[in-house]
Amino acid sequence: MPCPSLRSKLPQVGTTIFSVMSALAAETGAVNLGQGFPDFACDPTLVDGVTRAMQQGFNQYPPMAGVPALREAVASKIEAMYARRYLATSEITITAGATQAILTAILAIVHTGDEVIVLEPCYDSYVPNIELAGGVPVRVPLTPGTFRPDFAKIAAAITPKTRAIIVNTPHNPSGTVWSAADMQQLEHLLAPTNVVLISDEVYEHMVFDGAAHQSAARFAALAERAFVVSSFGKTYHVTGWKVGYVAAPAEMTHEFRKVHQFNVFTVNTPMQHALAEFMAQPEPYLNLPSFYQQKRDLFRAGLAHTRFKLLPCEGTYFQCVDTSQINDLDEAAFCKWLTTDVGVAAIPLSAFYGNGFDQQVVRFCFAKKTETLQLALQKLQSL
Ligand SMILES: Cc1ncc(COP(=O)(O)O)c(C=O)c1O
To answer: What are phi and psi of 140, to 5 degrees?
Structure first.
């Protein structure tokens, strides 16, 4: 029997450049500064916490919305950081990473034909998520060169069909961070509309040079219309655990949970217990900015001795560089060449644009051990 012919729901989607570059890095033995994940261990207390939770018998389904102690810990953290109290019972949901939180939020609110604004360059799951929900992605560029939001362009993209806008700060891939004034402008822009804000804040604890993360939770009129999404994977160096959360007003959470319960239903139990316990100390996330700032500074100081032109890095663990002084290759070809011939993997920014817009800028991830960064720098300095 031939297998049934299928009409793809995501005809544009192929193998992502992240997988391609990681595979190429593995094949060639290149230093992988492409995909965004740490190459160092998490705090052993976390691993002990998971082991203990398993030994204590926390191995069955937790409540659908997540382990209550973890939801409480998240509510307390958000209140301490951003001065807004979410109710753990009805406004916080634990998710299988930020990826599932974003997909679930979109599936919960987007109907066929609804428009959802994304600001390009953007994280690669947003557009397929919108398409799976039957929505129409509306791509608005961040300002080329600076990657700052262009509020006139965003305003022009809002129509009666706009159901949501997805904002990501600190921003992957550019490393820009929205200011309080940016968030106020967004608040002002959305005020007369019925648009939901999906606020992707997975890098909330990676903001540098003494600046503060401007969570949507800080701004009352944004918080009232926002799904605020974060990721324990990013904050605690455990990307493979795939645990995140979403905070949203009760009515929005109610709709979110309807989809969540038939999507994953709930998230693995022992990790949640360990995270709840670990969150009792704020130091690990309070110290994260200085931890990553040191890595950023080391990496930038090394790159200063290369022909790459450095773009600013205000947050995240990504550093973008302009490659135009090195050669004329387009971004994708440059990354392949850099991996195979120089031995360092990077990601082309064109991968974050629907139309493959090329500006000769590539992204490095500096969430790496000092030795890894130094090895990569040695190779990059040979250029
Ligand atoms: C902007 C952004 N959003 C969401 C995610 C996904 O987070 P998680 O691993 O928790 O699903 C990532 C991961 O790279 C990201 O960079």
So the answer is: -115, 125
Q: What is the DSSP-derived secondary structure letter of residue 171? A: P
Instruction: Determine whether the shortest distance from the Cβ of 231 to ligand 1 is under 6 A.
Output: yes
Alpha carbon distance 308, 383 (integer Å): 9
Is the CB of residue 118 below 6 angstroms from any atom belonging to ligand 1? no
Distance (Å) from CA 238 to ligand 1 centroid? 12
- pLDDT at site 1: 64
Question: Among the atoms of ligand 1, which is closest to the Cα of residue 96?
Answer: 11
Residues 114 and 108 sit within 8 Å (Cβ to Cβ)? no
Average pLDDT, the chain: 97
| β-strand pairing of 344-345 with 31-32 | parallel
Measuring CA to CA, which residue among 241, 371, 377, 234 is closest to residue 319? 377
Q: What share of the chain is helix, strand, coil (3-state, %, to 5)?
A: 40, 15, 45
Q: Which two tokens mark 210?
A: 């003494």
* Burial class of residue 309 (count of CB atoms within 10 Å of its CB; 0-12, 13-18, 19+): middle
- Residue ranges in the chain modelled with pLDDT below 70: 1
Q: Is the CB of 199 under 6 A from ligand 1?
A: no
pLDDT of residue 378: 97
The pLDDT of residue 14 is 84
Residue nearest to ligand 1 atom 7, measured at CA = 98
Is ligand 1 within 6 A of the CB of residue 38?
A: no
Residue 369, both tokens: 């051990």
**What is the 98 CA–ligand 1 centroid distance (Å)?**
6
- What pLDDT is attached to residue 286? 98
Residue of minimum CA distance from atom 14 in ligand 1: 36
Question: Rounded distance, CA 120 to CA 204, Å?
Answer: 19
Do strands 347-348 and 361-365 pair parallel, antiparallel, or not at all (unpaired)? Answer: antiparallel
For 166, phi then psi, to 5°, come to -105, 125
The alpha carbon dihedral of 314, 117, 103, 144 has a sign of: negative
**Ligand 1 center to 276 CA (angstroms):** 20
Mutate to test the pocket of ligand 1, among 102, 166, 234 (most ligand atoms within 8 A of CB): 234
- pTM exceeds 0.90: yes
Q: Which two tokens stand for residue 65?
A: 């919305």
